[in-house]
Amino acid sequence: TNGAGTLLTTEQCLLNKNRNPHLSREQIEAWLRSELGQERVVWLPHGLHLDDGTDGHVDNVAAFADAQTVVLQGCDDTAEPDHQRMAVNRRVVEDAGFIVREVPVLPFTDVDGRRVVVPYVNFYVVNGGVIVPVCGHPADDDVLALLGEWFPSREVVGLDVGEILAYGGGGIHCITQQIPAL
């Protein structure tokens, strides 16, 4: 959430038949609003193409930087299915009236011969810092610098997720349990 009444989620995840088969989108949205105290739910159509493990969790494709700004995972490789998927998500966020900051590179790593995506937006904002998953990709340093511009009052630190966290597309945000301010 952005802390100001808006929640981001993905249709790919919450509308997946193996998650909420008995609920409509409207029912899910009503529950999210009621139970999480949100005024608005912005539904991104897509999670990551290779995110079979979570059915497209939102924290792999989008994160709020502040109440008005969304950091989106982009994909500059036009040969990747995520290139178009992330472009569609961007239009939805722009149409919802948010400022968009896009991380253009979507890195991949190899885990036991399997190609695994390591999205930079699966970062975790902590007191005074931002911990960002990295994997030795040539763009790691540039993305850390970019995030440093978007989070100027925080220290941005890359954490090599290696094989442990990268397996299945999980990252820093996925393994943390945030406690919301109520």
Keywords:
182 residues; alpha/beta; L-arginine/glycine Amidinotransferase, Chain A; 3-stranded mixed sheet; globular
Task: Write the CATH fold name.
Answer: L-arginine/glycine Amidinotransferase, Chain A
Q: What value does the Rg take, in angstroms?
A: 16 Å
CATH class: Alpha Beta
Binned strand content: 25-35%
Number of strands: 10
> At the fourth CATH level, what is the homologous superfamily?
L-arginine/glycine Amidinotransferase, Chain A
- Low-pLDDT runs: none
**CATH architecture classification name:** 5-stranded Propeller
Number of domains: 1
The averaged pLDDT comes out at: 89
If helices are DSSP runs of H or I spanning 4 or more residues, what is the number of helices? 5
The biggest sheet amounts to: 3 strands, mixed
- How far the N terminus sits from the C terminus, by CA atoms, comes to 12 Å
Q: Helical residue percent?
A: 25-40%
Q: What is the overall silhouette?
A: globular
Structural class designation: alpha/beta
Strand order within the widest sheet?
Answer: 3-4-5
Instruction: List SSEs in N-to-C order.
Output: EHHEEEHEEEEEHEH
